[in-house]
Amino acid sequence: MTDLVIYDPAPAALVPQQATNDGHLVALWLYGRSAATQRAYTADVRDFLGHLGGRALRSVTVGDVQSFGASLEHLSSATRARRLSSVKSLLAYGHRLGYLPFDVGAVVAVPPVKNTLAERIMAEPDVQRLLALETSPRNAVMLRLLYAAGLRISEVCALRWRDARPRDDAGQVTIFGKGGKTRAVLLPATVWGALVALRQGAGEDDPIFRSRKRGHLHSSAVHRVVKTAADRAGLSAEVSAHWLRHAHASHALDRGAPVHLVQATLGHASVATTGRYAHARPTESSSRFLAV
């Protein structure tokens, strides 16, 4: 964000030392967030600044935020909510720092988002077909880890061999995940065996999934592997790596796994987040009791 510098007409004496201009404020706001979050938030803020037509953030009014939200009507409800939430977060942060005189975004409501989780949960036979048809040993292990361990795509990319440790007749992987939280995930013996077979003398600090330059595999490469596997299995073109994480949660709950255990495995901050999967695919409904 070092290239994002907006002209600010306020006298230098009135600018708090925490942020010297709008670009500096954005950089402070983004600091410490994941690379993926920084990319998304940066794009959202650039759209908002473009909507302002070059005006400084100190000049933003409630009407500006509302009109920005209205300009997003052509997008999905989820995308509109995310972009508006990003702007509200930035404005609230700037006000807390004392850089902005008011938090004008606080009174602007984020539009409700339809819960489409059920649309992104694959049936078990579809997942098993996707896994069975993969012929590349590396890619097969990658796909199985995404599903069996419920990993995020960034977590798979970041894995090093020191993160994999044997446990009895199988093993575990230690994940440094979203929000800076660390969790250990036990692997089935079949997945652990396939993972160990990939090592072939690699060092402790070597990535488990390496790029051609022998560094960590990029998320875009994992994305392509999943898309290719989904196409091979005759599944929707919308299938992504995160769909396998969704499938893990839903299938584990369907098979009787306690919700708190699924929460711990996936690294959800709240059991309410995990509980969404049970609500997305209920096993019972009062509609079944009606004479229709």
Q: Explain this structure to me?
A:
The protein is mostly helical and 292 residues long. The protein has 2 domains: 96 residues, DNA polymerase, domain 1, CATH 1.10.150; 163 residues, hpI Integrase, Chain A (Orthogonal Bundle), CATH 1.10.443.10. Helix content is 48%, strand content 6%. It has 12 helices and 3 strands. The longest helix has 21 residues. It is globular and about 60 Å long. About 4% of the residues have low confidence.
Concise description?
The protein has twelve helices and three strands, in the order H-H-H-H-H-H-H-E-E-E-H-H-H-H-H. It is mostly helical and 292 residues long.
Helical run tally: 12
| CATH fold description of the largest domain | hpI Integrase, Chain A
CATH superfamily of the largest domain: Intergrase catalytic core
Task: Write down the Rg.
Answer: 23 Å
Low-confidence stretches: 5-16
Total tally of structural domains? 2
Write the layout of secondary structure elements.
Layout: H1 22-30, H2 35-52, H3 62-70, H4 77-97, H5 124-132, H6 137-148, H7 153-158, E1 164-167, E2 170-176, E3 182-187, H8 189-197, H9 219-232, H10 241-254, H11 259-266, H12 271-280
Antiparallel strand pairs: 1-2, 2-3
Helix pairs in contact: 2-4, 6-10, 10-11, 11-12
